[in-house]
Fold this protein.
Amino acid sequence: METTPIWLVDAAWISFAFFCGFLARLLRLPPLLGFLAAGFLLNALGIRQAGEALQELADLGVTLLLFTIGLKLDVKSLLRKEIWLGTSLHMLISTVVLGGLVFLLTFTPLLGRVPVATAILIGFALSFSSTVFAIKILEERGELNALHGATAMGILVMQDIIAVVFLTVSAGKIPSVWALALPLLYLLRPLFFKLLEYSHHGELLALCGLFLTMVAGAASFEFVGLKPDLGALVMGIMIGSHPKAKELGYTLLGLKNLFLVAFFLSIGLSGLPDVKILLVSLLLGLFIVFKGGLFYSMLSRFNFRSRTALFTAVPLANYSEFGLIVVAVGVKSGWLDSSWLVLIAMALTISFIIGAPLNSSVYDIYARFRDLFKRCEKPVLHPADQPVELDADLLIFGMGRVGTGAYDCARNTYGQKVIGLDNNRETVEEHQQAGRDVIFGDVTDLDFWERIDPDQVRLISLCMPRHEANVTAVEQLQEAGYTGFIAATARFNDQVEELKEMGVHSVYNIFANVGPAYADYVRKDILEHPVFSAELKEDELVNSSS
């Protein structure tokens, strides 16, 4: 039998992925829904030769994702009760409830009879949350460092640890004795730091990141019988404190996003459902509301504000790609029929289809039902979720490089009435140590404006690096009834136009204004230089008189 030329297979999956993702974007849906649809279309058309290659790229994308999570992860957060206890309780309850649902369905014509142990295994597979989906959603909104983003990341990492335990037990073997030598990797940390420093920038830094992820991290853990993704996560944590860690994360961003396209395509290529599987998958897909509601209820009981609990719960409500791994292990071990793999793949896909628009509209949902959500709040709030009190005329949100420069300039001009805010606690602490008046706050939080008087703030400057975060901030400011002056930064002309159409008074295009800003900077240094300043001032006088 003749096989389709590999170049034609590659052309097919790239074209399907692009045009389906492009169509999803035109419909104002997340592109990942288009990528999922492309995978199922390729499967339906019989173009399955790309499956193995795409799976390799997908695995690489997930490994890179965990490495970049490690670069930003605060390990101390895992010791918080709401992380380790909340994750354990949620997975236990979800396993029992979803496993019980599957067992009950076996008494219907939709599923054949299965033992209780098999139903519990399926429930366990469905209890995990999708790391790829949740991080992608939080990253696109610029919320990874916000309290709810950090909490979600902590829960996902705890689930990964539970996954490692499951894989080890299910394999029926313990890790190699060489696993005891893994702590020695920490002794190599100075070497890894030197590699980062001498890699400088560009493609060499990207290759250095791939080496640290795939070789020093993933391969070393796989060699001793542990989950390679865990190795990538640990390696990211080890080098996350290096000054070049943030640049490395940005350098790997494009590669990671491209490889994750393969992940979503590979789900569609895993199999096509029949009518019964489709109906069961739809029913299981609706149960993400239960998963999300359980997360919300638990986080509320840990004294989080209703907004924090909701914004953490919704991205975690989806089923996980790890469910496919659990079922694959069950099929390989003879515990499950192979049709379960297709069923879980469809349930995962449907959870993405429901979850994507749900996450996109979570701000509107909270604004509309805020009074109802706030009834669930405890009288005493979590220490990390306390109200903010401030007295300022000018607020600068996003204390990165641009925000810091804006803060220093405004402080010299307006004095003590300037306050910086950031949703990253480490960034806040660094600025406070440097003597800046910076506090933890989130302009996208509608409740934030309930704790202060918006009318006392004359000017708000939005300097957050993510355009989506600035757009959301403007929407929340308008929802809160803010009538003062709003300034914002953007990187591209279409972003400038979008912000202006939303009512932002002043939008600064960072890229377009680099040249003039550089010229002003150089001119200032020349005027301060004793050799050149007199000559330049004389030329300016001549030009002005003529």
Summary: The chain has a mean pLDDT of 82. The two ends are 84 Å apart (CA to CA).
